[in-house]
Amino acid sequence: MKHRVLTSFVIIFTFCLTLGILRPKKTASVPPSSVKNTLSSSQLSYFSRISAPITTGDSIIRVGGTGLPSNTTNNLFIGDTIGIGTTGAGVGNTGGLTLYTVQDIGNTQTIEINSGIGQSNAFINAAIVATRSAIHTISFTPQSNFTGGFWQFLIKASTSTGEIHNDGIPDQNGFDLGSTTPSSTANGVGTRLKITDVTCPNWGVGVTTAYSVGTTAVVNSNTYHVVSCYLGVGGTNQVGVGYSMAIGADLASGSQLINPSPNHIIANEGNADVYTFFIRHLDSTASVIDSDTAQGKIAMVEAVRVTATIDPTLTFIIDATGVGVGATPCGLSAFGTNASNTTATAVTYGSLVLASPNDLAQRLSCVTNANSGYVVTVYEDGPMQNIADGTTLPDTDCNGGGCTTTTPAAWSTYTASGWGYAIQNLNIGVTVTDYQTGYRPFGNGTANAKEIIKNTTTPSATERAYVCYRATASTTQKAGNYESKLVYTATATF
C-alpha cells in the first residue's frame, strides 16, 4: 500500500515538473506602462490640387478645391519638394508624379515653382503632394514576459476609399508605408519603410532587427501597419524595465513612415489630428495576449510658417580714422601736422612742398546685406583749379610713369605737377587696385567714375580701405589756392 502511494506521488510530481519545464513561464498578464511614441516630426503631409487653368511653362500655380485635405498654401514652405500629378501622356513624362521645388508662396492660394510646369502636369485637378515623414521612437515598460514571444507595434493605416496605404502618397486617415521605388515616374515620392530601418528594443539576447514590416492588422475595426520584434529562441524581456525602439531612419539613406495629410476641415487648421497606436504582446506561437495590449496616442498638426522681412541696408562712411598725424597708410612716411586738418568732408593740404610728394588720406567703410554685395565708385568734378584764374593742377600721369584712370603705375619722381590717389585694402573683398601696384588719376565727371572697392557677395562685416591722396607741384606751378571736388558713390545689388 505504501509502495502504491509513493509510486503515485512520484508520477504526479514528475508530471507537474515536466509541465513546468515544457510550459513557458510568464508573469501575470498586465499591459505595459509608460507607453509613448515620440515623432521626429509631427507635421502633417500636404495634399491639394491645381485649382485654376494653367499653361505649359507657367511657374505660378493656384491650389485648392472642395473637400481636399489641404485647401490652401498653409503647411507648404519655400524649398519643399512637391509632386504634381501627370496625365501620363505628356512629352517626356509618364507615371504618377513629376517633382518640383516650391520657390515662393504668394498668398493662401498661390505658389511659385522652380521651373515652368511640364505639359503633362498643366491641367486642373492635378494632384499636388508634399510628403512629411518621421521616425517613431516608441518607449514602454513591460509588466509581463513570455519566453520566445513577440512584441508588436501598430501604427494607423488608411483603408479609406481612394487611398492606398503603401503607395508613397500621404493618406488622409493614416500613415503611408511608402512607395517601393519612389522617383519622378513612380506613384509616390516616399521610400517604402525598410525592415533594416527598424531598430527593435535591445532585449539583451542580440536580436534588434525587426521580424517583419509591412503587414496590417485590424483592431476595433481599424487597420494598422504592424512592426514585429521577436524575442528570439529562449529570449525574454525584463519586467518593470523600460525599453525603446525606432521605426524609421535618417532619410539621407533610410526610410520612414509618411505622415498623414489633414483629416480636419480648413476651419480647424491648428487643431491636431489624433491617432491611436498599439503595443501588443504575443506568445511563442504568435498568438496575441489581449490583456497585455496597451494603446497610446499620436497628435499630428500643420507646421507654423514664421515670416519676417529684413529691409535692405547699405552703409557707407568717409572718415579720418587712422589717417591723422603720424599715420602711415599705403606704405607712406608718417604724416605731418597737416594730417590733423583731414576730416570726413575735407582734405586740407595747406601749403604744398614743391617738387615733393604731399600725402594725406581718408578711410572708407562700407557694409550691406545685399545678396550681390556692393561697389564704391569715385570721380572728380574737374581737375584741381586755381580758384582765382582757373589754372589747373593737372591730373597725374605719375610724372611720366604712364598711369591712367584705369591703369596704376609707380609714382616716384615729383618734378611735374599732378594729383592722384592709391588704395590700401584693409579687409575688403576686392579692390580694383592697390597702392603696391601704384597710383592713378581720378576720372573726370560722372561718366568716368571708376570702381575702387567692391564685394560681389554679402560682406560678413564692415569692410574698410584707406584712400591715399597725393599732390605734387612743380617749381613753376602758378601760386594760388587750388580746389577740386570728389564724389563717392556706394551702390548695393539686391
Q: What count of helical segments does DSSP give?
A: 1
Structural class: mainly beta
Q: Which runs of at least 5 residues are low in confidence (pLDDT < 50)? A: 1-26, 89-94, 183-187
Instruction: Specify the biggest β-sheet.
Output: 6 strands, antiparallel
Q: What coarse outline follows from CA principal-axis ratios?
A: elongated
Give the oligomer, counting copies of the same chain as homo and different chains as hetero.
single chain
Number of domains: 3
- Overall number of strands: 28
Tell me the β content: 25-35%
Condensed summary:
The protein is mostly beta strands. It has one helix at 2-22, and strands at residues 33-39, 46-49, 60-62, 81-85, 97-105, 110-113, 127-130, 133-134, 136-141, 150-156, 198-199, 212-219, 222-230, 243-247, 257-258, 273-282, 294-300, 314-319, 358-368, 374-380, 384-386, 392-393, 418-425, 430-431, 450-455, 463-472, 482-483, 486-492.
Tags for this model:
3 domains, 494 residues, Immunoglobulin-like, mainly beta, elongated, 28 strands, Thrombin, subunit H, disordered N terminus, five-stranded antiparallel β-sheet, 1 helix
